[in-house]
Amino acid sequence: MSVPEASIREMLAANLKRVRAQRGLSLSELARRSGIGKATLSQLESGSGNPTIETVFSLSRVLEVPIADLLDSQPPGELTVVRAAQVEVLSGAGVDLRALRRITSGDAVVDVYDQLVRADCRQDSLGHVGTEHTVVQAGRLRVEVDGHRVELGPGDYVGFNAARPHSYTALGAAVRSVLLLQYQKGQRLHPAAPHDLTVDSPSVAP
Q: How far apart (Å, rounded) are the C-alpha atoms in residues 189 and 95?
């Protein structure tokens, strides 16, 4: 089976330029709003930069677009198989993400990610578009959303408004989970939206 036609760098370069133009932002203004250096942004748009999770999350938040709109997606066929070894890893301070598929139904969009929180590591996010759903497959995961904290084990689920500041922490060994980002087509970021944290788990810590 062949490797993906475009790398994360190439997809981010094309999509970042497109979205920035749609927003009418100069590189200087985007740098000011995102806190990312103008030279770094220029490298990302030329496809020569090295994007991290933090960078992509920051751009998603400032440009008010879903993360997958910056990373692109492949149209589904009748049978879609995604091999983990063939998907590029987008890494951050504590998390490795693999974008597996985008699912659309009407105006609803769900992006599916394989997520690994590295052992004894923490990944912070200032917030981004959508509702975030995580199902833990292996390990113990601490999730914090706007001061609310829960601990999850294998089979446990948590969902919350992703516009709120949040973090994932692996408690000891690495945590493997499935991450779903749900939003509406054309949805924009609303940081002031009410906090909503939903946990379905028989073993959630108080």
A: 23
Q: 10 Å Cβ neighbour count for 17? A: 15
For residue 38, the domain's CATH number is 1.10.260.40
51 and 116 share one domain: no
Block means of pLDDT (10 residues each) for the chain, 206 residues, are 57 89 92 93 90 90 86 60 85 93 86 96 92 97 95 97 95 97 73 47 41
Among 40, 187, 197, 200, which residue's Cα sits nearest to residue 128? 187
**By residue range, what is the domain housing residue 56?**
8-71
Residue 78 covered by a domain:
no
**What pTM did the predictor assign?**
0.65
Q: Specify burial of residue 4 (Cβ count, 10 A radius: 0-12, 13-18, 19+).
A: middle
Parallel/antiparallel/unpaired status of strands 148-152 and 131-138 = unpaired
